[in-house]
Write a structure and sequence with these properties.
Largest sheet: none
Radius of gyration: 28 Å
Number of helices: 4
Distance between the termini: 94 Å
Helix content: over 70%
Shape: rod-shaped
Strand content: under 5%
Number of strands: 0
Order of helices and strands: HHHH
């Protein structure tokens, strides 16, 4: 065999191997990208966040009823209540979707807690 034929055979073998393994390499790369969007947390921490979120939701409903019963149509109270509702919805979406970091969801819950306490003080 001449050197030219040997080079052609080696190139052909390399191209054949690439052709066989290209779908596997592409699938592996796509799977690696997908796994980067997943957040894993302990179940206990997940349950604690869900419990805190439900408690805040109950607090918001209670405060809404108090505002309605007291017939305080203060713009500031309603503004704070709506802001708290928005924060609650944001926190629920972040926990459900799990696309945002756990730290962000926790910060939203903390903001919601602060808003609820401020709203309680104003009432």
């Amino acid at each position: 065999m001449s050197k030219k034929n040997l080079i052609i055979i080696i190139v052909f073998i390399l191209l054949s191997l690439f052709w066989c393994f290209a779908p596997w390499l592409i699938a592996h790369c796509v799977a690696a990208e997908t796994n980067q969007e997943v957040i894993t947390i302990p179940r206990q921490q997940w349950a604690e966040l869900k419990t805190r979120l439900k408690q805040q939701q109950v607090t918001l409903l209670t405060l809404q009823e108090e505002i309605t019963m007291l017939k305080k149509s203060s713009r500031e109270l309603m503004k704070n209540l709506n802001e708290a509702k928005r924060q609650l919805k944001t926190a629920q979406n972040e926990l459900t979707a799990s696309n945002c970091s756990l730290k962000s969801a926790s910060m939203e819950i903390e903001k919601l807690s602060i808003l609820c306490s401020e709203l309680k003080q104003q009432i």
